[in-house]
Each structure stands twice: as C-alpha cells, then as structure tokens.
C-alpha cells in the first residue's frame, strides 16, 4: 500500500520560495535595508556581506591607503626631512623608534594610572600615530 504524496501547506511553499529567492541578486532597496539591519548583529552583518555584490565590495576597498603616509607635507615634515638627511636614515630611524616607544610608554602609564582597559590604550596609541602623521612626524 503506497501512501499518496503529502499535500503542501502554504508554509512549505513559503519556505521553498524563500530559499529560491536567496539565490537571486538583491535589489538596491533590499541591499540598503540589509545594510541598515547589519548594524544590529554580527550574524546579520555577515548575511548582508554575503549578499553584497563583489564589485561593490572591491570598489570600497579601492580607496583604502594600505601603506605610507598620506600627510607627507605636515607642519613638521621639513624639519623631519632635514634631520633625516643630516643624521642618516639608519640613525634617524633608531631615534624615531625610541621616541615612539617613549610616547607609547607615557600613554601606557596614563592608562594604568586612570584604570583604562587595553582597548582604550590601543586606541590612544593609534590616535597618536594618526596625529603624528598629520603633523609630519612620519614624513
């Protein structure tokens, strides 16, 4: 005795449609809605990223500066360049490294005195590096 195939309920049909819909490209409005929802949770963010077309993601990465200093003409850049030429590149980099280490130590002592956590310390050091680059210390 064979059983007749089970009737599909509307819920089963809706599930199949959702699965089939997941493989189609999303419209502009759906992408913007998904991007807004992506701020809510890491799971939603990864789902939105998976649906974002690759060309869009590659376009966003194209504007990121990977290495180098985008502020090569800061206020102190001429002084830094002259000092590097007079002292020599190797000795100049040693002195610069010591100065950066001392400044990082001062930031660390500050964070320890005021009870800041590691994330705050890392953000302060990162901000110091950005500001030093803008002022021309990394020229």
Query: Order of helices and strands, N to C?
Result: HHHHHHH
Overall pLDDT metric = 75
Based on CA inertia axes, which overall geometry fits?
elongated
**What level of helicity do the residues show?**
55-70%
Tell how many strands the DSSP assignment holds. 0
Oligomerization state: single chain
Number of helices: 7
Low-pLDDT sequence parts: none
As a percent range, the share of strand residues is under 5%
| N→C terminal distance | 85 Å
Structural class: mainly alpha
Query: Taking Cα atoms only, what radius of gyration do you get, to the nearest Å?
Result: 27 Å
Tell me the major beta sheet: none
Explain what you see:
It contains seven helices and no strands. The chain is mainly alpha-helical and 139 residues long. The longest helix has 26 residues. It is elongated.
């Amino acid at each position: 005795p064979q059983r007749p195939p089970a009737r599909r309920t509307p819920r089963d049909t809706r599930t199949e449609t959702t699965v089939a819909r997941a493989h189609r490209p999303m419209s502009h409005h759906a992408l913007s809605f998904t991007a807004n929802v992506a701020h809510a949770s890491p799971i939603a963010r990864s789902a939105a990223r998976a649906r974002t077309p690759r060309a869009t993601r590659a376009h966003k990465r194209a504007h990121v500066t990977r290495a180098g200093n985008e502020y090569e003409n800061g206020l102190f850049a001429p002084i830094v360049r002259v000092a590097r030429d007079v002292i020599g590149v190797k000795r100049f980099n040693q002195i610069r490294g010591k100065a950066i280490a001392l400044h990082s130590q001062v930031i660390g002592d500050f964070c320890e005195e005021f009870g800041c956590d590691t994330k705050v310390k890392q953000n302060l050091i990162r901000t110091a590096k950005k500001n030093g680059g803008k002022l021309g210390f990394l020229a």
